[in-house]
Amino acid sequence: MDEKTTQEETEVSAVDSLHEALDQNDTDLARDAIASLHPSEIADVIESRPGRERENVWELVDTELEGDVLSHMQDAVRTEFLENMHPAQVADATKDLDADDIADILQDLPEDVADTVLLSMDEQHRQRLASVLTYPEDTAGGLMNIDIISVRADVSLDAVARYLRLLGQIPTKTDNLMVVDRDNNYLGVLPLTELLVRGPETSVGEWMEEEAYLSASTPKTEVAKLFEQRDLVSAAVVDDQGLLLGRITVDDVVDVIQQEAEQAFRSMAGLGDDDMFAPVIASTKRRAVWLGINLLTAFLAAWVIGRFEDTIQELVALAVLMPVVAGMGGIAGSQTLTIAIRGIALGQIVKTNIKPLIIKELTVGILNGIIWSLVVAAIVILWFDNPYLGLIIGLSMIINLIVAALAGASIPMILKRYGIDPAIAGGVILTTVTDVVGFMTFLGLATIFLIA
Fold first, then answer.
1. Predicted confidence band of residue 1 (pLDDT cuts 50, 70, 90)
2. Within 13 Å of residue 126, how many CA atoms lie on the same side as its CB?
3. Who wins on pLDDT, 117 or 375?
4. Are 389 and 293 in the same domain?
5. 339, 329, 354, 335: which is closest to 404 by C-alpha?
6. Residue 265 lies in a domain
7. Same domain, yes or no: 223 and 317
8. Is-contact 392 318, C-beta < 8 A?
9. Is-contact 90 109, C-beta < 8 A?
10. Banded pLDDT at 32 (limits 50, 70, 90)
């Protein structure tokens, strides 16, 4: 058993011990268990406990860890705690956090309370936050940390080394020193490793690298994409004039990726809850809207079926087989829809490749339609001893799978064009299209060729 496995098992055991102690109301054991956990794990435990029990866990958290625990909480849960904290408590809990983490916490507070918290901070803390709070939280400026070390290109490496020793410590996750000119314009980075392997008499400019940087207004999704593509650990953030503002580190990007994944997952189910123990009424209201939309689409499909009521009464087998046609179309369309949404999210779909993508998905739809229509037709013929019924369902499946492929590829692009999140609305629209087309083609062809 390696060291990593042992550590993971210990962490899991500590979390389990904490839950067990909480269930047994053993305060001493719970406090010991919390002391052995990372702030992010404490936040996870708090989120997993129902309403009032969260306060019991929070009371056991060391005051020095409160800020870190708050920074790791989901927004909805964090807001719940912040509403019950005095502004001075918030200021004290966040005093040692990075500026970007403090900004995230303050943005969850009402404006008047946030102002009170800012006034409770010393001048140094307020200055640290000023530039971060200027930018929306979903941009590079809102994500950046202003705790950076900058050096000039014309100084020697020996001078830089002496400067670092004078500071005594450097910001966490510092892999590069930021290089600027006299006016604080960003020029590049100096990797810390260069201080160890290069001659002390050489200048910063000789070993400076022109690393990627980000505009403060860059959306967070683009930030994550740049880090993923270039395997960055950190990146500089500059304003419109090229002045250095701060940096973004990979831990911030991991948070962005996790949040985006969770949001996409919830959106596809029509869920807006960050908190699984959110108030019942609030959760009911959010989900009721989505259920209402789905109900309307279900009635539309039912209306189509109702138009062929006489046909179904004369040939009951049609009612048995209808879900097969609609279901196959829905699955095929969902596959294409997922590919299209992923391509949009990653920036891989542009004007020049939309047509080839649609052609490719239509080709896949045609081939899958032919293959599976033959399989289903054979099953239906053997089951109902009716070759015409097998032919009808086979032809319906081909048509529906082709339409599903076209809809799955085009719906996300149309929604994106009109500013609608494809992950939220795409599934509902696609299901409606495949159900309506599937029922109409199957029952329509049956009415023409089997009943008329």
1. very low
2. 10
3. 375
4. yes
5. 329
6. no
7. no
8. no
9. yes
10. confident
Task: Give yes or no: residues 376 and 329 share one domain.
Answer: yes
Are 337 and 394 in the same domain? Answer: yes
Same domain, 185 and 164: yes
Q: Which tens digit of pLDDT belongs to each residue from 336-394?
A: 998 888 888 767 787 888 889 889 999 999 999 999 999 999 999 999 999 999 999 99
Tokens encoding 376: 């289903």
Q: Left, alpha or beta for 279 (phi > 0: left; psi -120 to 50: alpha)?
A: beta
Residue 297: both structure tokens together: 């689409």
- Do the domain assignments include residue 261? no
What pLDDT was estimated at residue 54?
Answer: 87
Residues 222 and 288 in one domain: no
Verify that 219 and 91 share a domain, yes or no. Answer: no
CA 58, distance to chain mean position in Å, is: 27
* Residue 270 covered by a domain: no
Angle between helices 39-47 and 75-82 (to 10 degrees): 90
DSSP 8-state class, residue 172: T
- Its domain, for residue 229, covers 150-249
30-34, 269-273, 296-300, 415-419: least confident range: 269-273
pTM over 0.85: no
Q: Which CATH number covers residue 424?
A: 1.10.357.20
Same domain, yes or no, for 92 and 203?
no
Burial classification of residue 450, based on how many CB atoms lie within 10 Å of its CB (0-12 exposed, 13-18 middle, 19 or more buried): middle
Q: What is the mean pLDDT of residues 402-430?
A: 87
